[in-house]
């Protein structure tokens, strides 16, 4: 109402905001809310739904069959994320720090080529690595043998103990370009005067990085971490392409995305359930929301103290 | 920029290049390996996987069989449509919304910005159960339009968020001068704001396009029919069916990778220009 007092009719506002708000609301925001609502219902015969309270969540967390699958997927997903956090971000930071060194030749070429896998489809990358790691083809075994490490080779993707780690590392290999690019963009924004002053005082590249640049890019590192968190707890394609919807062997690579897909859509003998699927999606929503809240209220607030 | 930093001593420089070169090789090796082997005979694929194709090992049989057995041209067309149309809509609608949020003071501005930003952090996938019901209700299952609508909604939040920052940087003098000359708000947007934010638009285009082109989830759920298959779904189904035919599998993967590689040759410059324009100013 007050807006109308400021400007007679905000036609321009409607024009500029309208299309984006309508499409976003109809196909993103509303379905998300509706999914949360659906998770409180259960199916009572074809096309009929009755309010079920928190029944789906109770089933998910306490029913022996459901809860074992859910906790397994959640735990696998957590491992998947931790591997990204501990491998992808340090490598991304190292590469970004090196590429952003002033006067480095070929910097643009390195940056362009290293970012390349990030742009490719997860499905294709999954298949490519499946072939490369396949004992049938023997490429990785041959390469390891060439450096005298042939005995280390095994069918990593096929074994329960190593499949998840291998898949996580494939994902790291692909997505290291994201921390690389974001951190690089942040590193080259560090004011030249700061660097020059440090150079004049004889500081080494190493010190300049840790004492000047690193504190200034901490907010970006926080952003990279939360992006990785959201991406990982929403991952599906890589596991589905390489291991199928069952996350084999023996569910050792089952993550929340594949668990959600099976629950919602059904798979083999299991019948799909939209309401149970909505409950799994809601759990994923709350997990991601928790991560985002931690980021917004703890990490980002603390990091902003470093801001100038 | 091109001045040699006195700090980068030869030894450091050598170490830096070794690390970057090693990682670059690691990043490219799997892709190159698949591409070169897709042009080799089955025997050569297994005996000499690391060798380049030679006149005696060269063959296109994998590609020939793909063309016989599946409709890759159609898959490419479908992927192209469901990527380009949402890309255009996202760029246009996001730039408009970003302009409104950056330029006008109105009640609920911050709240609206927050509402639109939720979609950056909360993946649209989590709403899939309802999205499918909506698409079924609209009778759009197994249509490209279903994917176009969902992908447009998916791309908007991040695009709006990034572009709002850039729209704020449009110089006040320019806008005020235009307003004094009697230009309408629409004209100021299209003739001043949009051209000035073009580098950012290029960056946003890449961020919007890549996840759409690469998506498997929504094609799998909303449009799995043969005639609406995107390239990701097509390749996934094809490889599932012919997994023992290595020539065909390698050729299918190469075909699927090619458009992204070719586009990247153009867009990498745009992307980097966008990033440096934002950083250097």
What do these coordinates show?
The complex is a heterodimer of chains A (308) and B (281). Helices cover 71% and strands 3% of the residues of chain A. Chain A has 308 residues and is mostly helical. Chain A has a single domain (56-306), classed as MetI-like fold, CATH 1.10.3720.10. In chain A, strands 1-2 form a two-stranded antiparallel sheet. In chain A, α2 packs across α14 (274-303), α4 (64-99) runs parallel beside α8 and α5 runs antiparallel to α9 (177-187). Chain A starts with a helix and ends in a 5-residue tail after the last helix. In chain A, 42% of the residues are buried. Chain B is globular and about 75 Å long. Chain B starts with 9 loop residues before the first helix and ends with a helix. By secondary structure, chain B is an all-alpha fold. The longest helix of chain B is centred in the last third of the chain and has 35 residues, at 246-280. Chain B is built from 13 helices and no strands. Chain B has helices at residues 10-37, 42-47, 61-69, 72-103, 109-121, 128-137, 144-168, 172-180, 185-196, 198-214, 217-222, 231-241, 246-280. Chain B has two domains: 10-60, no CATH class; 70-241, MetI-like fold (Orthogonal Bundle), CATH 1.10.3720. In chain B, 76% of the residues lie in helices and 0% in strands. At the A-B interface, α1, α2, α4, α5 and α6 of A face α1, α4, α5, α6 and α7 of B.
């Amino acid at each position: 109402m007050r807006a109308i007092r400021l400007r007679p009719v905000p036609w321009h506002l409607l024009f500029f905001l309208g299309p984006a708000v309508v499409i976003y609301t109809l196909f993103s925001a509303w379905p998300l809310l509706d999914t949360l609502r659906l998770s409180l219902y259960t199916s009572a015969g074809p096309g009929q739904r009755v309010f079920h309270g928190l029944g789906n969540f109770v089933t998910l967390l306490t029913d022996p069959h459901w809860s074992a699958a859910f906790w397994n997927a959640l735990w696998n997903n957590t491992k998947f994320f931790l591997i990204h956090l501990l491998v992808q971000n340090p490598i991304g930071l190292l590469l970004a720090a090196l590429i952003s060194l002033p006067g480095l030749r070929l910097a643009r070429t390195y940056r362009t080529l290293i970012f390349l896998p990030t742009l490719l489809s997860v499905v294709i990358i999954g298949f490519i690595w499946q072939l490369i790691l396949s004992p049938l083809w023997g490429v990785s075994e041959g390469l390891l043998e060439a450096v005298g490490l042939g005995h280390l080779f095994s069918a990593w993707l096929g074994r329960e103990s190593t499949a998840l780690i291998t898949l996580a590392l494939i994902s790291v290999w692909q997505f290291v370009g994201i921390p690389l690019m974001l951190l690089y963009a942040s590193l080259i924004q560090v004011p030249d005067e700061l660097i020059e002053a440090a150079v004049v005082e004889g500081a080494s590249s190493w010190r300049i990085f840790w004492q000047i640049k690193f504190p200034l890019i901490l907010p970006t590192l926080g952003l990279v971490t939360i992006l990785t968190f959201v991406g990982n707890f929403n991952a599906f394609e890589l596991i589905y392409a390489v291991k199928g919807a069952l996350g084999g062997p023996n569910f050792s690579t089952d993550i929340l995305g594949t668990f959600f897909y099976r629950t919602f859509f059904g798979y083999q003998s299991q019948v799909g359930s939209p309401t149970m699927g909505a409950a799994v999606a809601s759990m994923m929503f709350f997990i991601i929301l928790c991560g985002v809240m931690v980021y917004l209220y703890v990490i980002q607030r603390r990091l902003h103290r470093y801001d100038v | 920029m091109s001045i040699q930093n006195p700090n980068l001593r030869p030894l450091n420089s050598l170490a830096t290049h070794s690390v970057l070169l090693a990682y670059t090789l690691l990043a490219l090796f799997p892709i190159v390996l698949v591409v070169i082997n897709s042009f080799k005979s089955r025997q050569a694929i297994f005996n000499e996987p690391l060798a380049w194709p030679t006149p005696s090992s060269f063959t296109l049989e994998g590609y020939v069989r793909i063309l016989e057995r599946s409709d890759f041209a159609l898959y490419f067309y479908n992927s192209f449509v469901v990527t380009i149309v949402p890309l255009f809509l996202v760029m246009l609608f996001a730039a408009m919304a970003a302009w409104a949020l950056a330029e006008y003071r109105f009640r609920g501005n911050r709240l609206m910005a927050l509402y639109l930003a939720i979609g950056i952090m909360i993946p649209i996938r989590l709403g899939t159960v309802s999205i499918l019901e909506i698409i079924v209700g609209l009778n759009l299952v197994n249509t490209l339009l279903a994917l176009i609508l969902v992908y447009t909604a998916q791309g908007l939040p991040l695009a709006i968020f990034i572009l709002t920052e850039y729209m704020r940087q449009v110089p006040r003098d320019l806008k005020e001068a235009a307003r004094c000359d009697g230009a309408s708000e629409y004209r100021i947007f299209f003739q001043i704001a949009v051209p000035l934010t073009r580098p950012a638009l290029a960056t946003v285009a890449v961020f919007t396009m890549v996840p759409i082109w690469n998506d498997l989830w929504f094609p799998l759920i909303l449009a799995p029919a043969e005639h609406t298959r995107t390239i990701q779904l097509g390749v996934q189904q094809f490889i599932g069916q012919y997994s023992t035919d290595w020539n065909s599998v390698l050729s299918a993967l190469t075909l699927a990778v090619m458009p992204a590689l070719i586009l990247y040759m153009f867009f990498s410059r745009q992307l980097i220009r966008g990033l440096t324009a934002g950083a250097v100013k």
